[in-house]
Amino acid sequence: MTGKGQVRKVVVLLGSPRRKGNSALLAARIARGARSAGAKVETVFLQDLNIAPCKSCYACQKENSKGCSINDAMQEVYPKLLGAEGWVIASPVYWFTMSAQTKLFMDRCFALLANAKESFAGKRIAIAMSYGDADPFVSGCVNALRTFQDAFRYAGAKIVGMVYGSAFGAGEIRTNEALLKEAEKLGRDLVG
User: Fold this and answer.
1) Is 188 a member of any domain?
2) CA R_g for the chain
3) 109: closest CA among 30, 53, 28?
4) Is residue 17 in some structural domain?
5) Which of 119, 120, 109, 126 is nearest to 162 (CA)?
6) For 160, phi and psi rounded to 5 degrees?
7) Would you say 105 and 52 are in contact if contact means Cβ atoms under 8 Å apart?
């Protein structure tokens, strides 16, 4: 991690098409907690980026690879990911798993596996999810959570925590103060 006196960096990746949707509000509270613990926070709104799907060319995994062969907005995101000790990934549940924007991002993180020790080792991850149904199992939220758990365990990163809750209308999560407080605590834990 960082040495004494240095500011820790956290990158927040918003995987919703809504800038102020429920998962984005949870991520904002995580970011607030991280800032209160001394972190520098940068937010990336994935919806605004032109990110192509992985084309399974494996160029990123070859010896002496220079990374992903697709020249798109992920080339700007990779340095942010590598330069941050903490990542916050926020997504609503769309059709029983994470949003398409989040899935594109996750698939393109495959390019970082070639140098997993440099790319993922020591990274601290926080997950924020919102879903419309009252139950995380019925909604499919658990499918996304399991994907995050499996992917980051495989890559050698640590999931520090997950916050998730039910909210259907945009911004409705604001009424769940207990969850918002939990999200803010997660932000402090992410840095600590």
Assistant:
1) no
2) 16
3) 53
4) yes
5) 126
6) -75, -35
7) no
- The CA distance from 181 to 190, in Å, is 14
Q: How far apart are CA 47 and CA 44, in angstroms?
A: 9
Where do we find the tokens 């040495």?
A: 3
Question: Long-range contacts made by residues 176-180, C-beta under 8 angstroms, separation at least 24?
Answer: 179/26, 180/25, 180/26, 180/29
In a domain, 33, yes or no: yes
pTM above 0.90, yes or no: yes
Report the domain count for the chain. 1
pLDDT tens, position by position, 67-101 = 999 999 999 999 999 999 999 999 999 999 999 99
Q: Which of 20, 39, 21 is nearest to 31 (CA)?
A: 39
Say which CATH number the domain at 57 has: 3.40.50.360
Cβ–Cβ < 8 Å for 25, 174: yes
Does residue 134 form part of some domain?
yes
Q: Are 139 and 94 in contact (CB under 8 A)?
A: no
Q: What is the pLDDT of residue 3?
A: 47
Q: Which of 5-19, 41-55, 57-71 has the lowest mean pLDDT?
A: 5-19
CA atoms of 147 and 77, how far apart (whole Å): 21
| The pLDDT of residue 7 | 52
Asked if 98 and 106 count as a contact pair (C-beta separation under 8 A), the reply is: yes
Query: Which residues partner with 165 through β-bridges?
Result: 130
The range of the structural domain enclosing residue 175 comes to 9-182
Do the beta carbons of residue 90 and residue 27 sit within 8 Å?
yes
